[in-house]
Amino acid sequence: THDLIYLIRKMKIEFPQELYDFVNYLSNLSVPTRYSESLQKMLSKFNKNHIEFMLKNTEEVRKWVKKSVQK
User: Fold this and answer.
1) Which among 13, 14, 26 is positioned nearest to 57, based on CA atoms?
2) Smallest Cα–Cα separation from 62: which of 12, 26, 28, 10?
3) Furthest C-alpha separation in the chain
């Protein structure tokens, strides 16, 4: 599945709201990437700061998940 929220629910762990909101945002990005017209609109809105924000937060989610599943 490409639905990250579905995967979070399957994990049955409670995400901090801030991380959950970001994962929801990422999950919603997957839809426009499947359609070239929507993808072009989306890409035009992404700048270096936005991409850095996404990378930083994705790494935070990755670390949090790793730590949570190791408990």
Assistant:
1) 26
2) 26
3) 43
**Residue 1, pLDDT score:** 62
Q: CB within 8 A of 5, min separation 6: which ones?
A: 20, 23, 24, 27
- As a dihedral over the C-alpha atoms of residue 63, residue 44, residue 49, residue 29, rounded to 10 degrees, the angle is -20
Residues in the chain: 71
The whole-angstrom separation of Cα 49 and Cα 46 is 8
Distance CA 38, CA 62 (A): 27
Which amino acid, residue 42?
A: M
Instruction: Over range 48-54, report the average pLDDT.
Output: 91
